[in-house]
Amino acid sequence: MAEEKRFISVFFVILQSLIYTVFAMDERLDKVKVQCDYLPLINFAIQQNGASIIHQLSIENTTPVPLKDIQVVITTEPTFGNAAPMAVEQIPANGSIRLSSFNLTLSANYFTQLTERLSGNLKIEITAEAEPIFCQTYPIDILAYDQWGGLNVLPEMLAAFITPNHTAISPIIKRAASILGQWTGNPSLDEYQSRTPDRVRKQMAAIYTAIAEQQIIYSTVPASFEEYGQRVRLADSVMAQKLGTCLDMALLYASCLEAIGLNALIVITQGHAFAGAWLVPETFPDPTIDDVSLLTKRTAEGIYDITLVETTCMNMGHSSDFDDAVKKANGKLADGNNFLLAIDIKRARYSGVRPIPQRILHGQVWEVDEKETNIQKSAVHATPQSINPYDLSGNETQTVITKQLLWERRLLDLSLRNNLLNIRITKNTLQLIPANLACLEDALADGEEFRILHRPADWESPAMDFGIYSSVPESDPVVGFINSELSQKRLRFYLSENDLGKALTHLYRSSRTSIEENGANTLYLALGLLKWYETPSSERPRYAPILLMPVEIIRKSAAKGYVIRSREEETMMNITLLEMLRQNFGITVSGLDPLPTDESGVNVKLIYSIIRNSIKNQRKWDVEEQAILGIFSFNKFIMWNDIHNNANKLVQNKIVSSLINGKIEWEAATEEIDATDMDKQLSPTDIVLPIIADSSQLEAIYEAVHDKTFILHGPPGTGKSQTITNIIANALYKGKRVLFVAEKMAALSVVQNRLAAIGLAPFCLEIHSNKTKKSAVISQLKETTEIIRQTPPEEFKKEAERLLNLRAELNQYIEALHKEYPFGVSLYDAIIHYQSVDVEPCFEIPQPYLDTLDKDTFAQWGEAIESLVRTANACGHPYRHPLTGISISEYSSAGKEEASQLLTAFIDLLNIIRQKLDVFSVLLKDTDIHPTRKDFQTIACIIRRILDIPELTPGLLTLPLLNETLNEYREVVVHGQKRDEQRKEIEAGFTKEILSINAKQMVAEWNRVSDQWFLPRYFGQRKIKKAINIYALKTIETEDIKPLLHRIIRYQEEEDAVQKYTGQLPSLFGRFGKNEDWTAIEQIINDMASLHSHLLNYAKDIAKVSQIKQNLSVQLTERIQTFRDIHAHSFNELYQLSDTLTVIEKKLSGTLGISTEELYTSSADWITIALSKAQTWKDNLDKLKDWYQWLQAYQTLNKLGIGFVATEYKEKNIPTDQLTDIFYKSFYQAVIQYIIAKEPTLELFNGKIFNDIIAKYKQISANFENITKKELFAKLASNIPSFTHEAIQSSEVGILQKNIRNNARGISIRKLFDQIPTLLPRMCPCMLMSPISVAQYIDTDAEKFDLIVFDEASQMPTYEAVGAIARGKNVVIVGDPKQMPPTSFFSVNTVDEDNIEMEDLESILDDCLALSIPSKYLLWHYRSKHESLIAFSNSEYYDNKLMTFPSPDNIESKVRRIAVDGYYDKGKSRQNQAEAQAVVDEIARRLRSEELRKKSIGVVTFSVVQQALIEDLLSDLFIFHPELETFALECEEPLFIKNLENVQGDERDVILFSVGYGPDAEGRVSMNFGPLNRAGGERRLNVAVSRARYEMIIFSTLRSDMIDLNRTSSIGVAGLKRFLEYAEKGMKHPLNTSSNIYLPDEETSIEKIIADKLRSLGYTVHTDIGCSGYKIDIGIVDPQNPSSYRLGIICDGKNYKRTKTARDREIVQNNVLKALGWDICRIWTMDWWEKPDEVIATLRRRISQHADSNQENEEETVRTEEQKDTAKPEILKAAYPAISKKQLAFSLAAAIKEDRYKKRKVVYQETELTAGQYQATDFFFERSIPILLSQIKRIMENEAPISQSLICQKINAAWGISRMSQTGSHLDALIRRLNFYRSRHNGIDFLWLDEAQYRTYSQFRTDSNRAATDLPPEEIANAVKYVLTDSVSLPLPDLAKACAKLFGFPRMGSNIEASMQRGIQEAVKRKYAKVESGRITIIG
């Protein structure tokens, strides 16, 4: 019961408006005020279901004291319930309490006995401390048992009167089962078990039929029963009385339905009630439903969730079957205004509403009667129609989300302006009288046509419901008529005949215009409307089309009128509607992609069912099955249509494909050109620059024409539009087509004006708006046709060559100066380092060292020098060190001890040697030789030779020519050895006597007899053999005779050679010579030679050698052995000492590294010297460790090849602290000399000459820009055909001429473009458009642009850009990701959070950055005339990568904050009055000053309200001072006042900021700063702070320290804090620096050297002026104005070198600096190196000049993006001679025409062959052949090319021959004899003089009498080219006619046409033209 009470209490809350509220106040007892909420009526049903009678009782104490012991008593009258008293402890003074739980028990018996309505009361009494304080009676109606109280009070209680358990309905149920069995064969009333709605419906029909059999009579209902209720006949009463009202019948039917388990419904309309049931086991969320659409959607065809039944059709007298009753019930709902309420019985049961029990009166007691009613059997009833609901379970599939779909969604207009969401009947929409839409769609899809007719004349249109005609009820007879008309292919509309005709004409024209203008159909037949509401409380319905079927209206004739038919395009879903449902209501409709289809087109009914199923829970929403014919479009429909219909074409574009797939789909070039390389490699003709460009711009311009797609980052003021202009100009010059796309007209206009300024306006077609007037486009094209062609300037290439040479010369110097050599030093480096060291160089670095020196080695040099210095500092200077001479590689104590022992042994040995050295004096008598250490070694060798030689005779020793004699005897030894060998061999077989025979004679005799015949030969040889056998020791063979004789001869020859010297051998070689011991003799010779050599080496004088030999020879008179016996011991001892000394020396070398050169001198006193050194070393071995350290450092230098440094350091006693500087200074001196010697450019450099070269370069560069503009104009103009004469009408030129004449009447721009696809790009190769105009005017199938350039890409959404991207091959995306993202003030699109990973980023720029598309950067900032204005943005947002230029007054900041005393009115106006007033006061101050108002003013606020306040205050100012308004607004740059959201793109000289936000009146500062807090706030701030050119003033009540970053995470707010800090502190505020900026070398630079020199002269000097990558090297502060510089000095140092191009260095930078007011002086390093005093003198002269002097110089004013275009130049007037345009056009046209005819079109020259001179009878004679050959040659020379048949005709005519057949073969043979070149076409031979003529022939000949077949196709091809040159493109038939006319054929015949076609084919073959779609177009 408690749960039931809770359910009932909910109804009180819902229906509070229906519950009586009573306020009672006792006049006497005024202590309390009581409010009682209670039910105004009550009945048994309410009692039974536990409803609370009193909902709430509120008691308010109105006294100032508390009321205590409160008691509330409730009584009823009559006594229908009892309530226990309620006690409350107290009510506080002036307080109140609410009582809501009352134990009021109602009497069930009392209500059961009621048979009539009664009036009763509720009485409430309240006491406090037993004293009455309140008493009130409340009226209440008490209803009879069977009385319903109506809809006003608890309407769901009607469910209590549905009594499924009454016995009276049992017979009906049984009969229904029987009927169901008849229909289906299954009598089971199985409710929902079958899960088949049709089965449930048949059960409902069976119940309906069973009740209808009861013959119940209909009774009318009381008036307004639905409001006040009525007595209800329950089931037993209806069955008993056979009488029932509509409510009774509905309740009876519902009771039966509930009895069999179906979920019944009761529907209440105005004055009527009927019933129904769910066909599926569902219920509504609430028991009562007041939204009729919740029913209509579920009863709709195809849904079949609910079936409603008109229950009065069951009454007697109605013949309606169940299906009719259903239709009538649905018809009752057609008028939604009559609908009141529906009650879901099942849902009411869940809320605790139970059926009341059956009450039957037996006497005085009510009892329940269980008796069943007998039911008569009736006839078999017709089976109700089956239903087939759609299976929607499979429609829950998710739509595949693609990038394309997301792009389409973002382009949709979801505002109510879009008639795809909010359709209204206007002149663009016509509503059909409803017909069967599914049949209509099927018929149209099958290609049927329908006539469009007006409404029936005898039928009045229904009223319009919020812009749409109301639905026509099914009962209306017109419905049948309309469906009949539909079957006859006629459609009826609501309009009258006259109105319909006008409306159709308008639709017909509008749809045709849309196709022509936009290329998109916008005429659709909308099938079905979704009726929807913006909010649940909205009263106005909106109607949105569901299906859109593309149709076209065709006008048959004036009589037949219009017909409608399908366009053979696919019917589509209204995706705008689907997206609106998804975004605004979270309804995702699945199952419609693709649209479900049936046999003919789409399945309309199923689609409606899917929609209804998706929105069935939306209150009041429904699907209206109506149709509307109309124009359906929206703001960006063209772009949406472009993406939707061209998806396959878009994805073929590499960039679009990459955006879709999220990765780069092409091979992006990794190699990027650098401007430095371009400056070296490219000629000025390779990249056309009509406007000066810096290096960063140059790189972008170059890349753009080399098939590169890239992002061009353009921070504020970096010359974006200037760069775009150059990109376009250069691309056009390279023959490329360019499409420039900008969202905003302002951005497009800037580029357009710049293009016009350089003379390219005629070649650029601007169509920014999609509503561009045709006349404007035609006007632009007409101007292009009227341009005057010009001859390209002859000086273009010559001047380019001069410019290239000058540029190379300038670059050559800077490259030579800064060229880094392999050792890592440039000349510049060497000079500055040399001059920075204040010592004198001491070392000579050999130049060859520098040839091989590299960085690593040089670094090692430096490290070694540092190591040497460290060692010297630690161990002492090595100058005169006692251990000099010792060189050890390692040190140890043991080694030190070993060294001591070794030195001791060495000293001892030397002393012994000194004693023994006298032994050698026997050899040195009278020689005056004093041996050195080296001589001592030689003496040892001499001793060794004397002791070892086998024999030494005085004769040998004293030989005068020793070497020659020894060599002579060496030969004797060889002869002797050979002789002995021969003798030994011979004596082995013969006696020695044989050696004496005359062998030579015998050989001669042997040879003689051998040549004779057999017998003489035999006998002669035998004789010789016999003579030899006398000496033989064994038998000798004949064949051995001759070899033997030869051997004897050789022996005898060797013997003769030896015999010459036999006599001298004993005297020279002693016994060995006597014995001819050749081995010993050979040894003696060698030893003697060695001895002689040693003696000579020792004595070093041949005379002294002779003396020594003489002394020795005297001692050898007794032979050598005697000499040895006397001196051997002492000699051997001396020799041993020598060996020992050598061993010790080696040990000294190995152990101490002491070399003999160091140990000894070349003095004879070597022993004394060596003893002295050895003793010194021994005595100082304690210093060996330190000496070792020094040696290590020295060895390091020595290994590196610079040991000489250490040596000189040691020997010259160079101070250790200066060693490093001296070394480097010496090195840099050597480097300077080395580099200058290698570089003639540097060696011959002269600064004055170089300055002259720079001046010449500037002059030629400026001149070349103008020449470039003329060259560019001439080249583009040459592509445009002549328009001076009338072209063929069907040609593209003819088409354009016609449209220019009639101003394109009857043709759209898009159609015109489609008709001149070849001519248009030739005339206007550049088009300037917006994304929407691209989609509108450029077909996706058109030839692609070579280059697309997007400007302001950061503000262009990707979905708008893709259409334009797809129309190009490559794209340059220009924008700045640090500036404003896309803004759309009216868009209601939201991000698709379900598919966030596929969503676009903010802009096309962001998306391309995400793809990692290559980027280029514009880095030179020109806008700000003071560097402080851009410094914050540069540091905060661009990592200090921008190259900004300091100004002469750079010392103080131009950004300042003015503190304002005021507050931010946060809670109210959200304005800052004080700031606004301060801004206006500053404006007034500036406008009043004649000087100050020269600078334009802009005001930027952080909020719209602050902007409005300033505008209001300024308006007030102007009212009182109108002259100030004139100054402010009527100037070149008017004053503007804007906010953060809309200031991008604007700039002014002075920007005034009003922050607005700040401390409020109480001093509190909120961290909410409006737009800055939002995502992208930092980008807004960046835009705002980069708008000023000269000055920026911030008016703010807010200080930077007031912003607490702990209270906000906003990046934008953090940026504001830093900006305010910067403004407060100015240039002193440290900004973030980036590693990307070159930081000058802290040690030295040329500017620091010069600056120090200037400071020493008393000047105040600053260096490295500037806060970005660009610096002024030196600034001389003006002593009279310390805040500015008097002179700027630029050197050729690192800053100069880092500048990439000569143009940057010598023109751009200087021009900018001059524009900023700098007086610049240049200093060249080479000048400074060679003549520093002269340089200083020059500087002093410049500095001494007055600060205001403006000396002349030839530098140009910088041309940057920020300069104002004061006027658009007249291109033709500026670039060409001043003669009239008409004269030029006439003369030029004539010249062109004459030139063309002269070169191509010539008159045919016939050859005269006099007829009659020759006889036909002589033709074939031999004597005629020369004549015929001559005639052929004459014809060929005059008329070639010519057909062979025509030659034959001409010759035959001359010979009087009429028949070709007679002479053909003869002439053919003669012609072939002459070897002319032939071409053959279709069996016809054409003759040419030679192949060269055939290849190069470019003419065609007119005025000939040639037959068409005699025209060479090659000649016709030339005519084709001629015609197309003027016409560009023609249909093939028209071209053939035009060519035929040129050859003199006024009409076309088959032969003529065939010949022309051959010529056209030849033209295509030769690539003069191409054929596409039946048209032929010129190529090139």
Question: Can you walk me through this structure?
Answer:
The chain is built from 73 helices and 56 strands. Helices cover 45% and strands 15% of the residues. It is an alpha/beta fold and 1980 residues long. A hairpin with a 2-residue loop joins strand 51 (1877-1881) and strand 52 (1884-1888). It is elongated, with a radius of gyration of 61 Å. Strands 23, 24, 27, 28, 29, 30, 31 and 32 form an eight-stranded mixed sheet that branches.
Short summary of the structure?
It contains 73 helices and 56 strands. It has 1980 residues and is of the alpha/beta class.
**How large is the share of residues in beta strands?**
5-15%
Major sheet characteristics:
8 strands, mixed
The 3D shape can be described as: elongated
- Overall structural class, as computed from helix and strand content, comes to alpha/beta
Residues in helix, % = 40-55%
Compute the number of helices.
73
Distance between the termini: 96 Å
What's the mean pLDDT score? Answer: 82
Regarding quaternary structure, how should these chains be classified? single chain
DSSP, total strands: 56
**Spans of at least 5 consecutive residues with low confidence:** 1-28, 368-380, 1384-1400, 1633-1642, 1750-1798
Any idea what the radius of gyration is? Answer: 61 Å
Give short descriptive properties of this protein.
1980 residues; alpha/beta; eight-stranded mixed sheet; seven-stranded parallel sheet
